[in-house]
Amino acid sequence: MPRKALRAICVTAMTVAMLGFATLAGSAGQAASDDPWPDLARDVFKSRPLADGTGLLALDMPYRAEDAAVVPLTARFTLPAGDPRQVKALTIVIDQNPSPVAAAFTFGSKARVSAISTRLRVNSYTNVHAVAELSDGKLYMVKRFVKAAGGCSAPAIKDANVAKVNTGEMRFRQFARASGAPSSAPEEAQIMIRHPNNSGLQLDQITHLYIPAFFVDDLKIWQGKDLVLAMESGISISENPIIRFTYVPNGAASFRAEAVDTEQHVYKGEWPAAGM
Hints:
Immunoglobulin-like; 4 helices; mainly beta
């Protein structure tokens, strides 16, 4: 999804949500019966057909979130043996969030990403949809229901001014292959970006004013010159974003990453590949 289109959806959804708060009491019964997914599917995926992704795409999330501001999500891709297609992109939609499109991932063709994890803010009881696009252009969808409340307005972990001191600091980690795993098995890595990722719906505990939205909305990771993944994201990614992913090594000597936030700050990092 183009970055401008994702941001437009985020801004529109947040505006509608804020206006909706004022009339929520009078329309609670109707809102409870409304399913936003048909409209979201039409707007986000331009009315393209969405096939059942069961068996090809798995979405792991807790049924009841321990912390609505930090809800773990893992998506796994399993193509049938002999299927020449690759997973080209993945979009995560949290139906009832003020800004439903949490993240849109694009994967490099050589990286062959087969799993990706992150942490999300979930604002109310909701379905979460994951939609994978394969290299033949077909879309496949699965969903999970999650019980959570208030994740988008939950206070930041630290004072906003303190959190900005180290904003943009990146940490990259590569995980050792599991014992007994074949040499051809995908490897796994993780990147963490220190960033408040303010949603725009959180209250400053001192001034009692809303903290302006300020979040990482673009991230790219390369293995040498080859793109591993790109992420366009919104307010639903938790504070201090963490992205964990599998990949197929290409022999490059290093990984590098570049992130951009909504104030156009650019953050960069580079790390040696394991074994180099």
